[in-house]
Amino acid sequence: MIRLLIFAILVLALGYGFSWLADRPGDLSLVWEGQLYQTKLIVAAAILIAIVAAAMIVWWFVRLIWTSPYSVTRYFRARKRDRGYQALSTGLIAAGAGNSLLARKMAARTRGLIRADQEPLINLLEAQAALIEGKHDEARQKFEQMANDPETRELGLRGLYLEAKRLGAHEAARQYAEKAADQAPYLPWAAQATLEYRSQAGRWDDAIKLLDQQKVAHVVDKATANRQRAVLLTARANDKLESDPTGARDDALAALKLVDDFVPAALIAAKALFREDKVRKAASILEQVWKAQPHPEVGRAYVRARSGDSVLDRLKRAERLEAIRPNNVEALLLTAKAAMDAGDFAKARAKAEAAARIDAREGAFLLLADIEEAETGDQGRIRHWMAQALRAPRDPAWVADGFVSEKWLPLSPITGRLDAFEWKAPFGQIDGPVEEGSTVSVDAALKSLPPVREAALATTAAKPSSPKVASPAADTYVMELEPTVAKPASSPSEAAPKPAQQGEEPRPFFGGAPDDPGVKDHKLEPEPKTRLKLF
User: Fold this and answer.
1) What is the pTM (predicted TM-score) of this model?
2) Cα–Cα distances in Å, from 73 out to 65, 67, 78, 116, 251?
3) 486-510 residue pLDDT tens
4) 139 Cβ contact list (under 8 Å, min separation 6)
5) What DSSP assignment string belongs to 281-342?
6) Which of 160, 258, 291, 515 has its CA 20 to 30 A from that of 327?
7) Dihedral (CA of 154, 160, 163, 169) sign
8) Residue 482: pLDDT above 60?
């Protein structure tokens, strides 16, 4: 474009010059060796320009002849280089497609056309061909050569890092990643790997420093950087919670400023504030997180904020959280549990049933079984709710890469990935029950709920009114022999079995000898049939 502009300017200048001379006619006289030469001025200017042009043409022709050997050599060299790059391109495509034979062939042809010191990608092509053929030692040698070359250092370090990961040499992989991150912090793979390695080692300060470098270099976007920084700050606060509650509080609050609904940071901040007797501030933090994301751990921490509170005080605090997020499953379950502990079984049952209607999951039915045991003690009704819990979907938990943890962790114990844990139902459970193929419904469960036995009511009435601890889940599988036809006993002595007298052999439980009087009596009046009942 610039050359075209200069050429146009020269043409315009020449045209303007000839026009200027044409408007001003005159004669030009030249005396040369006694001879007088006279011509028009415009003709003299044209002759002068023609002489200059002829001189330039002659100079170009002489220069062309003088430099022709070098030009010919350069032409063939460029043609050879083009053929080499074409072979290199074909070889890289073949290596990407997994064709090791063609990749090897093109690598040999490229080396014959281009020197390796001129084009370092030849080493990459040979390394890829070696990896396809399974020659990992040769591939590592090529990657080491590339790591020593300033132009391909980053590529060689990545190849060595992947080979170390493949062999399970985590320490070598960490060293390669940290070396690449120190020399080029803008590399996403090196920065992420180094960040995870430093986090696994508990070097939270170094990990936060590296994350700040990534953010400045625009390796990660702002939202991702803030999220990961909040995770690292929360992990550091968790380590400081026992030894330095003040530092743990500051780190957790800084994490909440970055991610305002981060539940682990809110829990650590609340625990640190509880130790400093700042209950009101801790409760305010838990309430803010509860508004954004109702979580059962946040609810339990809020309800048990004061260790000396009575069960009625805890019930009031649970109802306060329910008022903040009404018609929420976690809020209803929290209130139901607090009401059960306080002995208000009617409210506990109503809240638990409402939670089960919103989300019929395992925890709601287990809580109904606990309420049933605390209120009536009827084993039939308890097993009925436990059976519903077995068929219902599982409760959410902290899950990362298929691993279920009882508490939040900053890294996945399976892959070491940072911020891998999510609060969700484990294992992506299939919707619907496994046994019967019908949807679990609390209304259907209430309709099929067996009536309360009189003996259970009498036992419950005789017990003190203090709340009862929920029964363990091990009581789920209970086998009972229950008669299908019940015969009323004429007297308490007939209803209860007679104890064996002193010196008398005890009567067998499952049967006796044919001449046993007890067996003969049973022959006169057959015993009612029994059936096996699982729940």
Assistant:
1) 0.66
2) 14, 10, 9, 21, 69
3) 344 434 334 444 444 444 444 433 3
4) 127, 128, 130, 131, 159, 163
5) HHHHHHHHHHHHS--HHHHHHHHTSSTT--HHHHHHHHHHHHHHSTT-HHHHHHHHHHHHHH
6) 258
7) negative
8) no
Q: First CA to last CA across the chain, in angstroms?
A: 90
Cα 289–Cα 291–Cα 293 angle in degrees, nearest 5: 65
**Pairing between strand 403-405 and 27-32?**
unpaired
What is the C-alpha separation between 295 and 288, in angstroms, rounded?
Answer: 12
The tokens for 96 are 């990407």
> Both tokens of residue 54?
């002829």
- On the CB side of 465, how many CA atoms lie within 13 Å of its CA? 4
How many Å apart are CA 351 and CA 342, to the nearest integer? 14
* Whole-number percent of the chain with pLDDT over 90: 41
Tokens for 379? 């084993």
**Closest among 291, 440, 431 to 364, alpha carbons compared:** 440
- Structure-block tokens of residue 313: 């005080």
Q: How is the chain split among helix, strand and coil, in percent rounded to 5? A: 65, 5, 30
| Residue type, position 5, single letter | L
What CA–CA distance (Å, rounded) separates 310 from 287?
Answer: 20
Contact 288, 325 (CB under 8 A): no
What pLDDT score does 349 carry?
93
Structure tokens at 159: 């190849």
Checking if the pLDDT of 427 tops 80, the result is: no
Hunting for tokens 């999951």 — which residue is that?
361
Length of the chain: 535
Unique residue bearing structure tokens 């509650």: 245
User: What is the amino acid identity at position 397?
Assistant: A
Band (456; pLDDT cuts 50, 70, 90): low
Cα separation, 73 vs 24, whole angstroms: 53
The whole-angstrom separation of Cα 31 and Cα 301 is: 116
> Among the residues of 67-120, which ranges form H helices?
68-97, 100-113
> HSE (CB half, 13 Å, CA atoms) of 529?
2
Going from the C-alpha of 94 to that of each of 98, 345, 420, the distances in angstroms are 6, 73, 37
Which of 179, 188, 137 has its CA nearest to residue 157?
Answer: 179
Is 252 in contact with 234 (CB distance < 8 Å)?
A: yes
Q: Are the C-beta atoms of residues 471 and 373 closer than 8 Å to each other?
A: yes
Q: Which two tokens stand for residue 32?
A: 């040369």
Of 57, 66, 25, nearest to 43 by C-alpha is 25
DSSP per residue, 467-495: --PPPPGGGGS--EEEESS----SSHHHH
What stretches of 332-473 adopt beta strand conformation (E)? 397-400, 403-405, 422-424
Which of 107, 100, 102, 158 is closest to 134 using CA atoms?
100
